[in-house]
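Internal ticket - ligand job 206, fe (ii) ion:
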Amino acid sequence: MGGADEYLVERPRLRQFVGNVKRILAESPSPAEALRRLREPFGRLLADSDWLPEAYRQPCETGGMGSNIGNWLLYRSGDGSLSLFSLVVPPGASTPVHDHLAWGLVGLYSGEQEELVYRVVEAAGETRVRLELAQVNRLRPGDFYELVPPDNDIHAVRTVSAEPSVSIHLLTKDIGCIWRHAYEPETGTVKPFRSGYTNAACETEA
Ligand SMILES: [Fe+2]
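stdout (C-alpha cells):
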C-alpha cells in the first residue's frame, strides 16, 4: 500500500538519518529493541544544529494544534509507517493534552519545554476518561523521551523559554494524519483529534 516516501526537507543529513532509522526498524524484533537502538542516532540528530531549515523552526497561525503551533512535516514513508516532524510551540503556549497511538521518540532541538505526562485512572467508554497528572518533565536541547502506547502515550507540551521551542518527533505512523484523541483532564472529555501538518496534506478518510 501507499506511494513514495516524501522528503519535505532535502538535506543529506536527514536522508542519512532516515536510512539509519529504517535499517534499525527492519532489524529490530521488537519496539523496545528498536527504541534502544534509535537512541544514539536520534541523539546525534538533536545535537546537530545545521540540518533543520529556518522555515521549519517557525510557529504558524494556521496549524491544526491551535495556539499558533507549527507542526512541520519533514519526512514520511509512503506506507504510512514512519513520520518525522518538527513541533514549534510559541513562548507560553501549550498543545492540547493528546495521545499518539504510535510509539517513537520525541526530543528537544531548541528552546525549553515542559512535558506534562498523564495517566489514565478510569476509562468510561470512548468519550470520557479520567486522567491524572503523573509527571512533569523539563526538557532542554538534546533531551529526549520515548512514547509507547498504551501506558506512556498521553501528554501535553508547553514552552517555558522566552523563544519558541522546537522539538523533533519520530513516530511509527503518519502521525499528523491518523485520528487519535484530545483530552480535557478537568472534565474527563475525550474528542477525536487529527493534528494534520502545517505544510502537508492528509488523504481524506471516508
Ligand atoms: Fe505529542
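Auto-summary: DSSP finds two helices and twelve strands in the chain. The chain has one domain: 6-193.
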